Amino acid sequence: MIWPFRRRQRAASTPELDPALLRQASAGLPWLRGLDPTYQQRLRILAAKFLQDKTITPLAGLTLNPVQRLRLALLCCMPLLEFGAEGLHGWHELVVYPGAFRARRSHMDAYGVLHEGEQELIGEAWMHGPLVLSWADVCADIAAPTDGYCVAVHEMAHKLDALDGVMDGTPPLPRAWQRQWAADFQRAYDALCDAVDAGRDTAIDPYAAEAPEEFFAVCSEYHFSDPSTLRAAMPQVAEHLERFYGKPLLTR
Ligand SMILES: [Zn+2]
Fold first, then answer.
1. How many whole angstroms from 231 Cα to the centroid of ligand 1?
2. Does a structural domain hold residue 80?
3. Residue 229 sits in which domain range?
4. Rounded to 5 degrees, what angle do the CA atoms 42, 47, 50 make?
5. Structural domain includes residue 4
6. Taking burial as the number of CB atoms within 10 A of a residue's CB, which of 87, 129, 218, 223 is the most buried?
7. What global pTM score does this model have?
């Protein structure tokens, strides 16, 4: 009696996506063009789970049709092709603004002074809360998929980073790999910070020098949207990300 019950449960836990909807949503995403059947299947299951688990909330007058919702799910699940559905744990909502949004933020500086102010953001990932995206920026990433930007991937990298309870630029990994990752990322991050401090041009967006967690998120964007620049600038980081995310889906 146990086995049939289990089978019904498993069938219910991976809902099927409408094939016509999936075709339309995938056709708009350049990253999925060369995806082999094994990964296509993985992505389908992940996106179905995403749509089942997450509430997608468009704000400020934005409306999203089913194709656009599925496209968001597919984009957010691209970084999970190797990691798997555990990468969706710990949060329940994707909030989507029509464009860049203003957010009131505060941070404590090294002297213990609390600074508050408004910032213009295109994406945000709360430690235990929603993932927030600007729809205009998601569309701009899709229109220029090899420019080094992908806000959905950036915010998903923060969500993966946060899975072990700290946003520090290192997602949960097997111990030996985590040690190597931390050492290689730290070295590349320090070199980038030195270049930025010295006013030198950097191969990747200097925003990555803001903090180790931003470094991981920005390098993740390059893995998906400009992998050859990442590989040339930081081969060890590129190698870790290939192992973590799988081979780059686009090559320049
Ligand atoms: Zn970030």
1. 21
2. yes
3. 16-245
4. 130
5. no
6. 223
7. 0.89
